[in-house]
Specification:
Layout: H1 3-20, H2 30-125, E1 127-129, H3 131-134, E2 139-141, E3 145-149, E4 153-155, E5 165-167, E6 172-175, E7 180-183, E8 193-195, E9 200-210, E10 217-219, E11 224-234, E12 242-244, E13 249-259, E14 266-269, E15 272-277, E16 280-282, E17 289-292, E18 295-300, E19 303-305, E20 312-315, E21 318-324, E22 327-329, E23 336-339, E24 342-348, E25 351-353, E26 360-363, E27 368-371, E28 374-376, E29 383-386, E30 393-395, E31 398-400, E32 407-409, E33 416-419, E34 422-425, E35 432-434, E36 439-440, E37 463-466
Parallel strand pairs: 1-3, 2-5, 3-6, 4-7, 5-8, 6-9, 7-9, 8-10, 9-11, 10-12, 11-13, 12-14, 13-15, 13-16, 14-17, 15-18, 16-19, 17-20, 18-21, 19-22, 20-23, 21-24, 22-25, 23-26, 24-27, 25-28, 26-29, 27-30, 28-31, 29-32, 30-33, 31-34, 32-35, 33-36, 34-37
Helix pairs in contact: 1-2
Length: 467
């Protein structure tokens, strides 16, 4: 405590003490005044002594506070020193972070260059299609060129009757680039890829189209030069998987899988000059393939399997259809049906088995050739000639274990010829049954007799064995 403050306090005490004590009156003898003053001095010293004792604890506390302040100051110095050390230790980290940021900037710059390069590459190979191009109302392509999917297309149409991609121009290639076009909602009558009417030289290739409520691929009338290759067409609604409409000329379908169509797998109407190679049409809700009123159509190396109705229907009036090296098995209402004036049809080198009903049915048609096929275990007849069928030539086929009759001829027209076939029937079943009398069978004498003649026949004739 400052000296001036102590003197002030002492004077303050003295004044209060004097005020409280009887002051000497005028005329009081000096010795009395001295005596009074001496008593005041004693009292003052006593009070000061008490005051000093009372404030000694304060001074002790102040000393302790100063010591603690010194300790805190020392600790703060240590903390500051340690903070400086931490900053020094992290200086390398900050330097590394700066270097990393520089590298990130470099990578971003190179990414921008890469994006530009990819864009240039895309431009070299064609025009990229992305989900943003298709949107919810579909994309229409009109300009010639090559277009390709840069990503999977997930199409959720906002209204009915809109295709994901519509091709409305000539000389256009749509390359799915190994990707998928898929409908992701249940909006009705939505087509995957549609080719508008009257266009030339259009190709769809290289990917998957699936889950559309209408056709997966719909080719409209009077188009020319249509190619569908290396495609998977899967799981559509109540329409054909692929539809080829009236007046189309020149169609190539190669290496295409049409699976689980909600109606017919592939349907053509009035199509001319069509080839279908290495395709698989399976698990359709109706027929696998229906060629309706179509001319000059060839099917090679195709599999038609497990469709709910007939595997393959050639439906006239039509002419010049060739079905070669195909496998037609396990279909619901027959293997191959050639009906309603579907003339000039060749069925050869095919395996036709285990279909529910006839293996091959030929009805009301002319000039049908069934040559060198293997027919097995169809649940009605392996071959059935019906209606007004005439000039039908059945040659060198192997017909095995039909549930009913291997070959039934019920045509009211004729003549038809059944020559050079081998038939193996189930026990007590007939191999050949003719109801009209207009068919030439040319049987050997041992037909159904179980005795092989000697010498063996020298001409091509039918051999029939009953197990």
């Amino acid at each position: 405590m400052k000296k001036s403050n102590i003197l002030f306090l002492a004077s303050f005490i003295c004044m209060n003490f004097l005020n409280a004590t009887s002051r000497p009156k005028p005329g009081t003898p000096l010795w009395n005044i001295v005596a009074s003053t001496q008593s005041i001095e004693v009292i003052t010293e006593s009070k000061l002594s008490e005051f000093s004792v009372d404030f000694s604890g304060i001074f002790t506390s102040l000393n302790e506070a100063q010591l603690k302040a010194s300790t805190i100051e020392s600790q703060l110095d240590v903390a500051i020193s340690e903070a400086d050390t931490v900053l020094s230790d992290f200086s390398g980290v900050f330097t590394s972070l700066d270097a990393l940021n520089e590298k990130i900037d470099t990578v971003q710059s190179k990414t921008d260059v890469l994006d530009t390069s990819i864009f240039n590459i895309e431009g070299a190979f064609g025009i990229a299609i992305r989900n943003s191009d298709v949107g919810t109302t579909g994309l229409t392509i009109t300009d010639p060129g090559t277009y390709f999917l840069a990503e999977h297309i997930n199409y959720a149409p906002s209204g009915t009757g809109t295709a994901a991609i519509t091709i409305d121009g000539d000389n256009i290639t749509l390359d799915l680039n190994g990707r998928t076009i898929r409908q992701t909602n249940s909006m009705g009558t939505t087509v995957g890829v549609e080719i508008a009417a009257g266009h030339t030289n259009v190709q769809i290739t290289g990917g998957t189209i699936r889950n559309f409520t209408a056709e997966l691929i719909d080719v409209n009338s009077t188009s020319n030069g249509i190619s569908i290759t290396h495609m998977n067409c899967l799981d559509n609604g109540s329409s054909p998987g692929i539809e080829l409409r009236s007046g189309i000329v020149g169609v190539n379908i190669d290496t295409v899988n049409i699976l689980n169509a909600g109606n017919i797998g592939l349907r053509t109407f009035n199509v001319t000059d069509m080839q279908m190679n290495n395709c698989n049409v399976s698990d359709s809700s109706a027929a696998g393939i229906r060629l309706n009123e179509s001319n000059n159509v060839s099917l090679f190396n195709c599999i038609v399997n497990n469709n709910n109705f007939a595997g393959l229907i050639v439906d006239g009036p039509s002419a010049s259809t060739r079905i070669d090296s195909c496998t037609v098995v396990d279909n619901g209402t027959g293997g191959i049906r050639v009906i309603d004036a579907a003339d000039d049809v060749l069925i050869t080198n095919c395996f036709i088995g285990q279909n529910n009903s006839e293996g091959i049915e030929i009805g009301d048609s002319d000039r049908i050739k069934v040559i060198e096929n293997y027919l097995s275990e169809n649940t009605s007849q392996n071959i059935f000639l019906d209606g007004t069928t005439q000039n039908c030539y059945v040659f060198a086929n192997c017909m095995v274990l039909s549930t009913s009759v291997n070959l039934l001829e019920a045509s009211t027209a004729g003549p038809n010829s059944v020559l050079g076939n081998y038939a193996l029937a189930n026990a007590f079943a007939d191999n050949y049954v003719t109801l009209s009398g207009n068919t030439t069978f040319n049987f050997d004498e041992f037909d159904q007799s179980g005795a092989f003649p000697s010498p063996a026949p020298t001409s091509w004739k039918n051999m029939s064995v009953r197990t």
